[in-house]
Amino acid sequence: MTTNAQAPQKPNSPDLCEPCAGIQRHWRKAPGHAELVQGTHQREDRGNGQASFTRYRCDRCGAAWEYENNKANQHAGWALLQH
To answer: How many domains does the chain have?
Structure first.
């Protein structure tokens, strides 16, 4: 019998507001929602090009998000930082 070292991540935390719970994570070009307020922005050089990272905070539930825009990685996109 094998065991999984990491428990699967719940895609929708019960503490998230409905619009945040509906954000598709880790997929480039997925939309956010209207109550996300943009924060800091930075760029990083990657071996295959440049990626940009923008942080957001939800006005409704307070969730902290980061959006990675990296044309070389289709699985970049939204990541929940904390809630």
So the answer is: 1
